[in-house]
Every structure is written in structure tokens, then in C-alpha cells.
Inverse folding.
């Protein structure tokens, strides 16, 4: 019997959380009250004058940090604790030095903390580690890094895009650590050393061993701490737990894991130390198909009566909470920095097996419950849906989406995602086992670094440059090519060719910088710890930053697709074909930002008299396809020379669709300067008027396999649309069809504008309200006002 | 009360074109699964609560959206009939002069004028509906013919229904059943599900509110169920003061129980007043403009009544007050 509810019930943590979990969860959220533990950045230096502990190129894709870049750089250096290094330290290769430095820090400097009641331990991991550079190396590093950074600032300021060599965004081979233990990996590396003659390569291999030994060392320190606490503990049950923790941390990750608890603890230490080694909190460091490789441990423990399902749930919850401590990195600045809530330690669930069969298991179902009960940002689940996803799984997913405003996870669509990976040249027999990182960026597990957020190109800038013969009209500077005065173009074809040239030109400019960032990192900043747990690096004797993994790409994410396509469609139809508007008029009003009555009239014609992408209109969609294919195929022809990593396309567009709004002039899609661009592969806000099926089909027409990284698509549904069982089923079938016809990944918002307005007015009542931004969640009340307004506008547009 | 006004009962006899006022994709309220609803313009009934007032008149109608208007006056210049005037109260449309030629719509830069209703070829309608075929397949959805009263245009309707049947698409017909048996005989073979509106069981009240007697409707309902053996979903708009009496809902339920063996479910649709703006734009008075929404508890009561009368598959939907 159905009902329609007027108000949305906001997703909250379950009332039935075990008391321990409730305590641990609350403790995490009480950032200012936990004076005894905050996982804030801890900087460590060799004491060498000028020693950098922080790399701008790691943060090149976060333009909102640029104003603080210098400050952060200096502050961390000043705060850094000096680490005593041995006398012969400087004789070694950079890789060896980094391995050794890591070991000393973990052995003697990084504090150890076990919180009351914790089951999974490992607390401090946010670091800023010395680059361990000698003065001569430092000199080169500084010169190249800051020259690079200056160029980056320019390209960002004029709205062409941004780039960096970004850590994280990778799935280390955790199952290997579980199975072989780090000890096993060390033994393997040792056998490789025996075969190796090149001194530098031997040092590289040794640096990995040093790194893995560091993990052992740190884990043992936790074991001692647990043993100490156990001795002091009065409560016999907790005492027993602490003794078990002491036993487990003495064993894993060095030895193979044998129980579910051991496996969770092993991964946590391994995982948090990747963040420590890269000095990068969480972003995109992902688990891969967690429910698959963890299942044997779970099953065995349940079957042998070692744990109950309830305790397994509690362990998982304890494990879940740990991931959120990445946000302590920005704890003090977090609240008012606008977008800040998207670290994205992605966990892949469900999905298909080698023969197209569904891989959902008991553990997957248990994790669904954990996600729903916990109401946390991290780890971020991504659920793989495919042709053979069973009805109950799809329904469970849909009803979770419904109950949680759509926020708890992303949905990845196997068939579409796999098409892209095959297009990218990945082996047929492996593609079923892909997993996304970060948000929805498709990669392979344990052997793939695809730099999934390293380059972000603003496609729409090429429209401005085409209209004004290569000039940025705000500064008057020529930043593009001279492609001619468009008033002289006789046909749309000429206009289009000019656009193609401008777009390729700005891509080239940006990729040059991407290549330089890649080169600087590869030369100066190896991460031996991560290399040891990513396949390919040992065999190739190459670091994870230098093309060591089996698969290596650098991903270019496109911004403003819909605006670019609709601008071209409007110019074609209204200027060249129907001649409703002359090029002269168009340029005049664009320069005037469509001010005045006449300007507004022209703007309205541009909006209303030309078809728009997102409505299953073949003409508009064909243009969007043209743009998408053009740039994605173009970047795929390029490689970064130092590392050999090939560029590939995708659509994530993070928050850049907002950031670049002021940097692009008004455009022929009827957009004024300052109005946000369209998000990733989505249509322009308010322009998709034919409903979700039409929008999904438009997306499907892009031919997204040429953007194999994966493509962010956010859709909004009203709560009434999902009010009962019958409608949940309709939604589930919508998803099933999206898998056949749409894009690679979908995030769903189920919220109404009224609820959001309430939340804006009374933030205190809506602390738990999560909303989707683009591939990631954020607490609505923690977003900046501008962003909140944008989300409200987006909701109001919904049909 | 005068019955059957001439212009409302005349049939569209051109089998290639239908007068349509909307094709709504991702329609989730008109039958099973994900559907597309084709709205036929023109209706023989005249219910004062109609939430699609644009569906009643069988001719195209011009409407003006104040929020979109940027007052460029292009429409006024374009109109050959001098039918438009921008007044301080908004656009005045002289509906006697207006021939619904659409020149103003074309001229308006901002989309503030819209012509509701156009003749579309059956092929064009078919193609547009078929775009979502993959969604119908996965959700066991399909096409719904709604309106208005689609049966007023039974020639193009039959052709469309045949085309969809042939393409393997599930077809639903949303109808008042105020029609002739021979028309039902013609259309129903190509229809999988009939969404049947039973509004008011009291014959006097039915004539009073809708302008037509319910005798034909009830007879046709039986005929659809017993002779054509078509699956039926009965729907009653629950309108405060018009159809929301206990006796009415009980009588509908009783009628279903006794006469409609193929009825699968019964839906109570709570009155909604969001159509007020549409009435304004069409220049029609909405008599129920100030009628409050139904109360949640009352909907539940009516539902319980129907269930007690032997229709366990009764549901209610709509916006309500608490
Ligand atoms: S539809 Fe034609 S006749 Fe009617 S107002 Fe517009 S231009 Fe005039």
C-alpha cells in the first residue's frame, strides 16, 4: 500500500550500532575534543638546509590551494621534525634513501596510538616526508618544480586546465600481502637481487625491502603497545581483545593472514602506510574488489566457528571508521573550505566474474548492511552492476539509494566500463576483474597506475579561443592559435576546423606540463614502499612513479563537454544554417556577456532555438559525440616521454566545472561568464527536458569507450519517484537498462529542493545530510554557500 | 444538463495523424514498468477536477508562460490575426481570433509561448515512443495511450496500437470508457491493459459532474472485462466533495468485485491542485482552485473500505495533508 511522503527522511547512522562502534564513530567526529589523538600532518626532515617535505606537483590539480601553496610549503618545512640519518645515507640512490628514511621514521618517530575499544589499530599516518635530496639534486628539483608551477598557474588562471603528478589513485596488491605476507614479498625481492647486477637497480630493490621492513617494525610497535595496555586493563574481556590485537599485529602484515580479523588488520596497516609513504591522505587510494578477496577469510572463520556474523560486522565497522581519519589532515581548516569531502578510498563491491557470472557473496551483503548502518564518508563504495546482476542485489542497491538520498555509493556499469578498457588495449581475459579507484576511474587491481586525476582540460575554453581568434578576452592575451576571424568563415565546417585546432593546441600545452610533472616525480620521488606492493615494479626494476606497474596511463579528464557541444550546435544551426543570428552579433553579445535587452534576446534564442545535448536529440547528441571522440582519441596518441605512460581520456571533472566558470567568456550555448559549466558528461543544468531515459540514451551515444577512464554522470530523482516497492523496482530496471545503453558510472541524488533549503537554513538539524558532488559525497552543511546554491538549483531543475 | 456537446464527441477519422499534446517519457504512474505516455487531445467528459485541462478541447491551444517572457514583443509583431496584446496583467490572448497557427511561438526567442496540441503522424509518434524500447523490455513497461480520451481518435489509435503490438511493446489504454462498443471492438484486440477511470457511481452525480451518464461507461467496463477479457486497472480520482464519499468508493469496489473479473488492481488517486497554473494559462476557470488536499488518514480509510469490499489490491497515491 503506497504512500507519498512530503519530507525526506535524512540518512543517519543506525540506532542499532554496537556500543563500541557508536563510541568510536562519535570519537572520530569529535575532532576538537580529542586532544589525545589527532591524525594531523607530521612533517619529517633530514635537516638538510632547504629540504622540501612537500611537492606542489602533488597538488597541482587542486587550484583552490594555489594561494596557500607557498605558505604550506614553508610551514611544513618549518614544522618538520628532524630525523637523524646515518652517516653514509647520502651515498645511496634516492630510492634507497627514501626506503631507509621511511624505515627510520616508522621505527623511531611516528607515534603509535591505540584508541579505547579499538579492534583494528593503526592511527598516525598523515605525513610530510623529506624528499631526501642532496644539495645538487635539490637545486635541480627547485628549479624545475617552480618553473613548472609558474606555468601551471598561468594555464589555470586563463581557464585552460590544471595538471600534476598526483599520488594515490591506485589499488595496491593487498591480496598478495594477505596471501604471501610482506615476508614472502621480501623473499621474492631477495631472489631478484641475486639475479641483478646493476648497482642502482639493486639499491632500488633493497629500498623496497627496507620499506616493507618498516611496516613490520611499525606493526610490532602496535603489538607492544597493545600488550602494554592489556597488562594495565582491568576489564577481562577488553584485556583478551588487547592480547589478541597484540598477537595479530605481531604477525601481520609480515606473515600471511589466516583469519578475518588478521586480514582486516593486515590491510589496514598496509593501506595506511601507503598514505604515509606518499605523504598523501587517502585520495583515491583504493581497495579494489574487497568483498572478493576478503570472502575466503570470512567464510572460513564463520564455518569454523571462529567468529559470529555479528562480530564480523563489528570488525568491519571498526575497520570502516579508521578510513575516515584521513580527514584529520584538514581537520582545522576543513569546515569552511568549501569542497573538501572527497578523499575517496574506494571499495569495489559485487560485479561480474570471468564468465559473466555474478560475484556477489555473503560478505557483500554484510557490507551493504555496514554501509547503510554506518553513514560515513569513507571508505567509499562503488558497486559494480552488470547484465547478470541478480534481481535481489539490484533491488537492495536501489532501496539503499532510496533510503540514503542516493549518497552511499556509486554504481559502476561493467559492460560499459569494460568496453572502454578493451578499447584501451587491455587483455580480454583480465578485463572482468577491473576495479575503479577514487570515484569511478577504471583501472586494474594491484598492477596499474593510471594517474586518474592528473590532467584536467577545460574543453569549453577552445570555444572562446575559436570565437576570438586565439585570444582570452578577459586579458586580451593571445593564448591560443591564430585560426582566423570567425566573421569571415563561410561555413560551419570552417568554424569547426578552427575549433579542432584550438582544442588540440590547448591540450598540447597542458600535456607538456603533465609530462614535466611526471618526469620530475619519476626522477626525484620514488615510492619504494608502494612499488613493492604493485605488480610489475619489482620485475621491471622501476618505481611505481616511473612506469613500473604492469599498466601505466595518465588520465586526462574533460570538463564542460555539454557546453562545448551545445555551443557548436547553436553556432551551426543559428549562425551558419538558419542565419537567425550573425557571427558579428554573436561576438558582440558574447563580449558584452549578453548584457542588455538585445543581449538577453540573443541569449534566449541561443538557448531555445537550437537543440541541446541530453534530450535524446540526434543532432545535438551527434555534436557531443564529435567533441568527445575528438579529444579523447587525440590524447590517446600521446605519451609521456620519460615514463612511457600513455594518455587516456575520461570525465570526472571534480569541482572544476565551478572553478573555471569565471575563466571562460560567455558561450554560444547561452551561458554567461560565471555560470557553472556542465558537470562531467551531464547535460547543462535545466536543459535536459525529456527525463532520465532520454538523458541516459544521450550519454550512451557519446561512444564513451574512447574515454576508458570512466565517466561521471549524476542524476537527480525526486523522493516521490521512489516512494514504494513498485517504484523501487522501476528504478532498478532503469539501472539495468542504463547498463546496456548509458555510461560507465552513475551517481544518484534523491532529495528535493525544499529539504536542501531547510538544511541551508538550519544546518544544525542536517549534520548527516550527504549529497553527491561529482563522484564523491560531501556533507551538505559543510559546503560553501555557492556550492549549496548550485546543488539546490540542480535539484529544482529536476522533472 | 446538456449532454454530449457536439464538438466534444466528434471523432478524428484521419488514421495517419493524431492530435497529441504530449509524449511523456519515463512515465511511472500509468501502468506497469517504465512507460511512455502518449497524450491524446480531446475528451467527451468535462470533469471540473481535471488535472490535464489542456486535454479537454480537441483543438490546439496557445498558452503563455509569464516567467519565460522577456517582453521583446516579437510575438505581437508576428501575429497576423492581431490576437495578442501584452497588458499589465500579462499576455492577453484573444482566443476567438487566434487560429493557432504558431507563428508567434516561432517568433518568441524565449519559449514563452507554446502551442499545446499538434497533429503528429503515427510514424512520428511510433518512432519517438520506440526510443525507450530497451527500458520497456527490462522493466516490463511499454506505451500508454492517455489523454484526454484516446478513443475519440480511434482510427490513428488503432493503427498505433497495432504497430506497437507488432513491435512487441506492451500497450495500455487509459480511458473513460465513454465510447461505443464497435470502437472498443476495433481497438481492444491490440491493447494489453485497460486503465479504466470510474469516477462516480451515482448516475445523477456522474452526469452533474462530468456531463455524461455513467450507464454507458459501466456497461463498457463489463464488456471490456467479460467479453474482451482484458486486464483492467480501475482508477478513481478522489476529489473532495465530488467522489470521496464512502458510498462511492464502496460502490466502485462492489462493482469491480461483481462485474470485472479481469480487474487486477484498484488505485485511489488523491486530488491534486498543482494544475491550477495550467487553468490560468488556458484562460479557463478552475472551480476547485481552493479545494484543500485530501488527508492522509482519509485516503487510508477509503482504501480500507475498498479492501473490505473485497478488492485487496487497492492502493492510494498522491500528495496529501497529514
Ligand atoms: S498562434 Fe497564430 S494566431 Fe494565435 S496568437 Fe499566435 S500568431 Fe496569432
Amino acid at each position: 500500500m503506497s504512500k507519498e511522503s512530503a519530507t525526506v527522511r535524512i540518512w543517519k547512522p543506525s540506532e542499532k550500532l554496537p556500543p563500541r562502534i557508536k563510541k568510536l564513530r562519535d570519537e572520530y567526529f569529535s575532532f576538537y575534543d580529542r586532544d589525545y589523538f589527532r591524525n594531523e600532518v607530521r612533517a619529517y626532515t633530514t635537516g638538510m638546509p632547504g629540504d622540501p617535505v612537500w611537492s606542489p606537483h602533488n597538488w597541482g590539480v587542486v587550484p583552490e590551494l594555489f594561494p596557500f601553496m607557498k605558505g604550506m610549503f614553508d610551514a611544513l618545512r618549518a614544522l618538520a621534525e628532524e630525523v637523524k640519518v646515518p652517516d653514509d645515507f647520502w651515498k645511496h640512490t634516492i630510492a634507497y634513501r627514501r626506503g631507509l628514511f621511511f624505515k627510520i621514521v616508522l621505527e623511531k618517530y611516528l607515534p603509535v596510538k591505540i584508541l579505547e575499544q579499538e579492534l583494528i589499530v593503526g592511527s598516525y599516518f598523515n605525513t610530510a616526508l623529506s624528499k631526501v635530496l642532496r644539495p645538487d639534486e635539490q637545486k635541480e628539483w627547485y628549479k624545475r618544480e617552480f618553473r613548472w608551477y609558474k606555468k601551471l598557474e598561468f594555464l589555470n588562471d586563463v581557464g585552460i586546465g590544471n595538471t600534476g603528478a598526483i599520488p594515490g589513485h591506485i589499488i595496491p596488491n593487498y591480496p598478495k600481502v594477505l596471501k604471501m605476507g610482506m615476508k614472502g614479498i621480501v623473499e621474492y625481492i631477495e631472489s631478484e637481487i641475486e639475479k641483478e647486477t646493476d648497482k642502482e637497480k639493486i639499491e632500488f630493490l633493497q629500498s623496497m625491502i627496507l620499506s616493507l621492513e618498516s611496516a613490520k617494525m611499525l606493526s610490532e610497535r602496535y603489538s607492544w603497545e597493545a600488550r602494554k595496555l592489556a597488562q594495565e586493563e582491568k576489564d577481562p574481556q577488553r584485556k583478551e581483545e588487547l592480547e589478541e590485537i597484540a598477537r595479530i599485529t605481531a604477525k601481520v602484515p609480515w606473515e600471511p593472514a589466516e583469519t578475518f580479523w588478521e586480514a582486516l588488520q593486515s590491510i589496514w596497516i598496509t593501506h595506511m602506510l601507503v598514505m604515509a609513504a606518499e605523504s598523501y591522505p587517502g585520495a583515491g587510494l583504493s581497495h579494489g574488489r574487497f568483498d572478493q578477496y576478503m570472502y575466503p577469510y570470512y567464510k572460513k572463520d564463520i564455518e569454523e566457528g571462529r567468529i559470529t556474523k555479528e562480530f564480523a560486522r563489528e570488525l568491519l565497522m571498526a575497520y570502516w571508521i579508521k578510513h575516515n581519519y584521513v580527514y584529520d589532515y584538514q581537520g582545522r581548516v576543513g569546515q569552511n573550505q568549501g569542497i573538501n569531502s572527497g578523499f575517496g578510498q574506494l571499495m569495489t563491491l559485487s560485479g561480474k566474474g570471468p564468465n559473466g557470472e555474478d560475484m556477489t557473496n555473503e560478505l557483500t551483503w554484510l557490507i551493504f548492511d555496514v554501509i547503510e548502518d554506518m553513514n560515513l564518508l569513507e571508505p567509499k563504495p562503488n558497486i559494480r552492476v552488470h547484465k547478470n546482476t541478480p534481481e535481489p542485489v539490484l533491488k537492495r542497491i536501489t532501496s539503499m539509494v532510496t533510503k540514503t538520498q542516493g549518497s552511499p555509493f556509486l554504481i559502476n556499469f561493467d559492460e560499459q566500463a569494460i568496453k572502454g578498457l578493451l578499447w584501451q588495449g587491455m587483455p580480454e581475459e583480465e578485463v572482468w576483474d577491473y576495479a575503479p579507484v577514487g570515484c569511478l576511474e577504471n583501472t586494474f587491481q594491484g598492477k596499474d597506475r593510471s594517474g586518474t586525476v592528473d590532467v584536467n582540460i577545460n574543453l569549453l575554453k577552445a570555444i572562446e579561443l575559436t570565437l576570438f581568434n586565439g585570444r582570452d578576452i578577459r586579458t586580451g592575451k593571445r593564448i591560443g592559435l591564430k585560426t582566423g576571424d570567425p566573421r569571415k568563415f563561410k561555413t560551419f565546417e570552417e568554424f569547426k576546423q578552427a575549433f579542432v585546432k584550438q582544442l588540440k593546441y590547448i591540450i598540447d600545452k597542458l600535456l607538456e606540463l603533465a609530462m614535466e610533472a611526471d618526469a620530475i616525480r619519476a626522477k626525484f620521488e620514488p615510492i619504494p614502499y608502494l612499488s613493492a606492493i604493485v605488480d610489475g615494479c619489482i620485475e621491471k626494476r622501476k618505481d611505481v612513479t616511473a612506469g613500473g606497474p604492469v599498466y601505466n596511463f595518465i588520465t586526462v579528464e574533460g570538463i564542460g563537454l555539454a557546453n562545448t557541444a551545445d555551443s557548436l550546435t547553436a553556432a551551426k544551426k543559428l549562425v551558419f544554417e538558419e542565419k537567425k543570428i550573425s557571427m558579428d552579433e554573436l561576438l558582440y553579445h558574447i563580449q558584452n556577456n549578453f548584457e542588455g535587452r538585445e543581449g538577453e534576446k540573443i541569449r534566449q534564442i541561443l538557448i531555445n532555438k537550437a537543440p541541446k545535448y541530453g534530450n535524446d536529440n540526434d543532432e545535438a547528441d551527434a555534436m557531443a559525440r564529435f567533441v568527445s571522440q575528438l579529444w579523447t582519441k587525440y590524447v590517446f596518441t600521446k605519451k609521456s616521454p620519460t615514463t612511457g605512460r600513455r594518455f587516456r581520456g575520461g570525465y570526472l571533472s571534480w569541482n572544476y566545472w565551478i572553478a573555471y566558470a569565471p575563466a571562460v567568456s560567455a558561450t554560444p550555448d547561452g551561458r554567461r561568464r560565471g555560470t557553472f559549466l556542465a558537470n562531467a558528461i551531464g547535460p547543462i543544468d535545466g536543459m535536459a527536458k525529456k527525463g532520465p531515459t532520454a538523458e541516459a540514451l544521450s550519454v550512451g551515444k557519446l561512444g564513451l569507450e574512447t574515454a576508458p577512464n570512466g565517466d561521471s554522470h549524476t542524476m537527480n530523482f525526486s523522493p516521490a519517484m521512489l516512494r514504494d516497492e513498485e517504484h523501487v523496482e522501476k528504478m532498478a530496471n532503469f539501472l539495468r537498462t542504463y547498463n546496456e545503453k548509458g555510461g560507465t558510472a552513475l551517481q544518484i541524488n534523491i532529495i528535493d529542493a525544499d529539504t536542501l533549503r531547510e538544511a541551508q537554513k538550519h544546518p544544525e538539524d542536517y549534520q548527516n545530510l550527504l549529497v553527491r558532488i561529482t563522484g564523491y559525497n560531501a556533507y551538505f552543511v559543510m559546503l560553501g554557500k555557492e556550492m549549496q546554491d548550485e546543488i539546490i538549483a540542480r535539484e529544482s531543475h529536476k522533472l | 444538463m446538456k449532454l454530449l456537446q457536439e464538438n466534444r464527441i466528434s471523432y478524428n477519422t484521419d488514421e495517419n495523424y493524431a492530435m497529441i499534446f504530449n509524449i511523456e517519457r519515463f512515465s511511472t504512474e500509468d501502468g506497469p514498468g517504465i512507460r511512455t505516455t502518449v497524450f491524446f487531445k480531446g475528451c467527451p467528459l468535462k470533469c471540473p477536477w481535471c488535472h490535464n485541462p489542456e486535454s479537454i478541447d480537441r483543438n490546439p491551444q496557445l498558452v503563455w508562460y509569464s516567467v519565460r517572457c522577456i517582453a521583446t514583443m516579437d510575438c505581437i509583431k508576428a501575429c497576423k490575426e492581431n490576437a495578442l496584446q501584452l497588458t499589465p496583467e500579462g499576455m492577453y490572448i484573444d482566443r476567438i481570433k487566434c487560429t493557432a497557427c504558431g507563428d508567434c511561438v516561432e517568433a518568441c526567442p524565449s519559449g514563452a509561448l507554446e502551442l499545446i496540441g499538434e497533429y503528429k503522424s503515427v510514424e512520428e509518434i511510433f518512432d519517438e515512443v520506440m526510443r525507450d524500447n530497451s527500458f520497456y523490455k527490462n522493466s516490463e513497461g511499454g506505451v500508454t495511450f492517455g489523454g484526454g480520451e484516446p478513443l475519440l481518435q480511434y482510427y490513428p489509435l488503432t493503427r498505433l496500437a497495432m504497430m506497437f503490438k507488432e513491435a512487441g511493446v506492451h500497450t495500455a489504454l487509459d480511458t473513460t470508457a465513454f465510447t461505443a462498443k464497435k470502437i472498443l471492438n476495433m481497438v481492444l484486440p491490440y491493447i494489453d491493459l485497460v486503465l479504466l477511470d470510474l469516477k462516480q457511481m451515482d448516475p445523477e452525480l456522474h452526469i452533474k459532474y462530468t456531463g455524461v451518464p455513467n450507464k454507458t461507461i459501466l456497461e463498457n467496463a463489463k464488456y471490456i472485462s467479460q467479453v474482451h477479457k482484458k486486464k483492467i486497472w480501475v482508477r478513481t480520482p478522489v476529489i473532495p466533495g465530488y467522489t470521496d464519499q464512502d458510498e462511492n468508493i464502496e460502490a466502485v469496489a462492489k462493482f469491480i468485485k461483481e462485474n470485472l473479473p479481469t480487474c487486477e488492481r484498484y488505485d485511489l488517486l488523491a486530488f491534486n491542485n498543482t494544475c491550477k497554473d495550467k487553468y490560468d494559462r488556458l484562460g479557463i476557470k478552475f472551480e476547485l482552485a481552493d479545494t484543500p488536499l485530501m488527508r492522509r488518514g482519509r485516503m487510508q480509510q477509503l482504501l480500507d473500505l475498498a479492501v473490505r469490499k473485497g478488492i485487496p489490491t487497492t492502493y492510494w497515491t498522491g500528495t496529501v495533508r497529514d
